[in-house]
Amino acid sequence: MVQLSYYLVLSGILFACGVVGFLIKRNIITIFMSIELMLNGVNLSFVAFAAHWQKLSGQVFVFFVMVVAAAEAAVGLAIIIALFRTRETLNIDQVNLLKL
Amino acid sequence: MLHLILFSVFGLVCVAGAVNLLLQRHPINSALSLVVVMGSLAVEFLLLGAEFVAAIQVIVYAGAVMVLFVFVIMLLNAGEEEQTRGSRVAWLLGIPAVLASMIIVCWALITHSNVGSVAIGALPGHPADIAQLLFHQFLLPFEVTSILVLIAIMGAVVLAARSETVERSKREG
Question: How far is residue A5 from each of residues A9, A70, B97, B170, measured CA to CA in Å?
Fold first, then answer.
């Protein structure tokens, strides 16, 4: 038996790592990976609560989160490729204009 | 006891991978540590009994999404991260706020840790049971996600395709 709160603490630590990476990283791909890390942290708390309340809906929510994350990764990486073509940089400090 | 040991080992691997993602300067190293995080999270899902979620975590996240990331990193030939100063507000306000809120949340969770415990394999998430929910109670959200995925595919193709106007402006300018 593991306390439910241990799972929530692990999920909170993962989410905080994702937020810190989002703030301190300057490479746009790594920032994108930090967002995936945050989504994974939330997924863990969904599954832990599903096990705690004995309701399968939590696992279905995780399925939806994964679908949205996959769609987001596809569109986001396409945007990064389009951005790299026009700017030829991956540093977000040099991407400060919407239009070139 | 076995549950606690497995949870601690894979939880530590998970946190180590997440911290390594932050410390690495090269994006490919960050991507590989993210694969470690996702793999150990799949084990955590299995410990909770969510077999289907663990399987799609490995197939979709650690497989498809990370292949996409590694592919883009190699396509764009992303090198070491350049050190620029970045936003000062993020450093002065963001990081302390994140760390403080994380510590408060963890402290609150640990001091109230007697709310309940979960046994190993507490809620077996068999694919048949999940499909039952997905195609009855959550049918409308499921259909909406299919439209979302279709839009995402078209958007990715449109965005990543080399547009003619950009080509023309490059040739002229």
Answer: 6, 28, 22, 56
- pTM above the 0.80 mark? yes
Among B34, B72, B116, beta carbon nearest to A52: B116
Output the six-digit token pair for B21.
């993602």
Residue in B69, B110, B156 closest to A5 by CB: B110
Select the CATH number that applies to the domain covering B2-80+87-125 from these four: 1.20.120.1200, 3.30.2350.10, 1.10.10.60, 1.10.150.530: 1.20.120.1200
Give the number of domains in chain A: 1
Which among A11, A15, A56, A12 has a CA at the least distance from the CA of A36? A15
- pLDDT tens digits for A7-65? 999 999 999 999 999 988 888 999 999 999 999 999 999 999 999 999 999 999 999 99
Q: Which residue ranges make up each domain of chain B?
A: 2-80+87-125, 138-173
Which of A29, A66, A85 minimises the CB distance to B61? Answer: A66
Could A74 and B11 be called an inter-chain contact, meaning their C-beta atoms sit closer than 8 Å? no
ipTM at complex level: 0.91
The residue of A30, A34, A99, A100 whose CB has the most chain B CBs within 10 angstroms, and thus the best one to mutate to test that interface, is A30
